[in-house]
Amino acid sequence: MMSLVKSGDIGAIIYGGYPYVKSLEAQGMSRKDAMKEFEKVTLKSQQSGLSSGLSQFQNSRNPFARLFLAFKNTSNQYFRKQADAIISYQNNDIDAKQLAKTLVIYGAIQPALYAGVGVLIRSLLYGSDDENYFDDILMAIALSPFNALPIINDMVNYTARKQTGQKSWKVFNVPLFEDLAMAVQALNKNDISIFDVMGAIGTLGELGTGAPVGTYTRIVKNVLDINDKPKRRE
Question: Average pLDDT of 162-181?
Fold first, then answer.
């Protein structure tokens, strides 16, 4: 699975980086300087573990802050790119054409591509005949300004789907809340197992200490081929 992710990353770097570097060289920049400029731009627009490439909120060591930012690295980067472009325009560092280009790329094109790929994957993997794929793309573009805002993003997403008649399962989609809900549900079963207790303790333990209790529990259950998920009520 990781090989597919790596190949995708390499392909994106080649596809987007090669023409950018060649463009800089055509402007008189040396290959070495062009590569440095490309690396600097990449750190601003792609996922990076460097502190300089993350927001102050993302750099926080508070486990609750990290909880709300799960799976939001890319949306935060797009948000910063647009904010930086607006600030640069106000400081006369870029012209209106460059500002519009940046806002369209990160506010419309990227969300549209992401939604389009999601529709394609659902179609290929699950045979989903989604006739509303264009609505999904428009929805992704409309909601993109809120994607970097924890909690608010979930509320806006849920409200928008309700108002447009699309499927909406729950308001908030925060990993910890889901884990807590599953732990409570498991502890309310008639036949509680040791894995249910470990899972409940692991949720709080992972948040407080970072120890992968839940991961080890899942590994043991998979090795022993144990399936003790609570059944849904009919």
Answer: 71
160 and 102 in a common domain: yes
The verdict on 162 and 117 lying in the same domain is yes
Q: How many domains does the chain have?
A: 2
Confidence bin at 177 (pLDDT 50/70/90): low
> To which residue do tokens 């990076």 refer?
48
Those residues whose C-beta lies under 8 Å from the C-beta of residue 133, and which sit 6 or more positions away, are 116, 119
- Asked if residue 50 is part of any domain, the answer here is no
Rounded (10°) angle between helices 213-223 and 194-209: 150
Estimate the crossing angle of helix 175-187 against helix 194-209, to 10 degrees: 150
Does pTM top 0.70 for this prediction?
no
Which range of residues forms the domain containing residue 217? Answer: 175-223
Instruction: Answer whether 168's CB lies under 8 Å from 161's CB.
Output: yes
| Residue 192 and residue 150 share a domain | no
